[in-house]
Amino acid sequence: xxxxxxxxxxxxxxxxxxxxxxxxxxxxxxxxxxxxxxxxxxxxxxxxxxxxxxxxxxxxxxxxxxxxxxxxxxxxxxxxxxxxxxxxxxxxxxxxxxxxxxxxxxxxxxxxxxxxxxxxxxxxxxxxxxxxxxxxxxxxxxxxxxxxxxxxxxxxxxxxxxxxxxxxxxxxxxxxxxxxxxxxxxxxxxxxxxxxxxxxxxxxxxxxxxxxxxxxxxxxxxxxxxxxxxxxxxxxxxxxxxxxxxxxxxxxxxxxxxxxxxxxxxxxxxxxxxxxxxxxxxxxxxxxxxxxxxxxxxxx
Length: 300
Hints:
The chain is mainly beta and 300 residues long. It contains three helices and 18 strands. The protein folds into three domains: 2-48, no CATH class; 59-198, no CATH class; 204-298, CATH 2.40.50. Helix content is 14%, strand content 47%. Strands 3-4-5-6-7-10-11-12 form an eight-stranded antiparallel β-barrel. A six-stranded mixed β-sheet has the order 17-16-13-14-15-18. The chain has a two-stranded antiparallel sheet with strand order 1-2.
């Protein structure tokens, strides 16, 4: 069509021959074509970028993992807009399969969600429409006893069922946590680290010293000289494994560069603090000799 449009024609006007050449047509149509090509390139570029809201609506980001079996997890990054008075809103969902410290994309969804009532008047559920997988994942887990006449609670059995064949549904737990539900609207896991937590900051780069303290971990940030409590979300367990490969003595520290974000957290003393999620470890090495020995400032 474009070739036909640009075809050079001789036009007779008022007894004179005027030849509109390809060059003159190009000058005439250049702004139109430039706009069209720019729009097409812009659309292709946007499809390759991370999710970016296009309006002024407030958006909240939750992320975390749920177990599929002992070796595999489904990692979810969920962005939701503030709900309207009718309980409706928009969302963007990215899902990844985690196995052996590797993470591979599984699915991506955009659409609308609805707010529903749960089993009791105070419980609220969110249903994310049209998010079921055409090829559902398989989830394996242990349950107590058997169905039927034999109900020995000391016996465990392995159960296998499809997961994420239906719309994603979550239960709202306070202001900073979403509990992922199965097809029967029951929690996949009650473990805090195996559900979704709300970011309280943008993603940022961190560089400093990581230390495992047995049942917890902390991170001393070099640029701000602050020490963060580290939660068990994100790459926490990967960082712990690498930490023990790099250290020789208990409470040694390792150098780490990573990306992370903050979350609301309750410490062992019941205090509400801002804690660090190590979203992705970029580099971990043994501690250099010039590790700072001064007492670090605690992040609150």
